């Protein structure tokens, strides 16, 4: 397939090319693929955009601390400081570190795969606020979720997939849990309300 941004095809054949094109992907497996659990918060936050904290290819430790401290405050990450080991954080705070990492890469498109899986209700609410702030800042947010209340509450458009195929498309005004389930149960085709 092709990926188009602003009507032009972009190369997303590697992670580096996708980041350069302004696309960030927050994996559903934060512990396995999203974080360096044995490393600290500042290193994890700056990892996807090292050029943003480097001079002549050398990481500026002071700038890295400044950036990480800013995200620690903005995203309300509960930790002793930016040198805190990420593996010792709660699931919700780990997810905020992953979001910080990708927000620091300054993407135009932020793809969130199961962004609140495995975190408590309070942390979910905070993650939703972060997502809403990204949208308010003009970011395109694509949320992949198996939690229907999350989709119904957060999305302005819902696409339903089943067995790797699109089987439904709904606006926020017309979507309901029943319509999503009906689309899943159908044997193909796009169903509009």
TrEMBL record:
Domain ABC transporter: 5-188
Protein origin, superkingdom: Bacteria
PROSITE patterns assigned to the protein according to its UniProt record, in alphabetical order: ABC_TRANSPORTER_1, ABC_TRANSPORTER_2
SUPFAM superfamilies (UniProt xref): P-loop containing nucleoside triphosphate hydrolases
Matching CDD domains: ABC_Carb_Monos_II
Keyword list, A-Z: ATP-binding, Cell membrane, Membrane, Nucleotide-binding, Repeat, Sugar transport, Translocase, Transport
Record flagged with keyword Protein biosynthesis: no
InterPro entries on file: ABC_carbohydrate_import_ATPase (IPR050107), ABC_transporter-like_ATP-bd (IPR003439), ABC_transporter-like_CS (IPR017871), P-loop_NTPase (IPR027417)
UniProt-listed Pfam families: ABC_tran (PF00005)
Protein name: ATP-binding cassette domain-containing protein
Lineage of producing organism: Bacteria, Pseudomonadati, Pseudomonadota, Betaproteobacteria, Burkholderiales
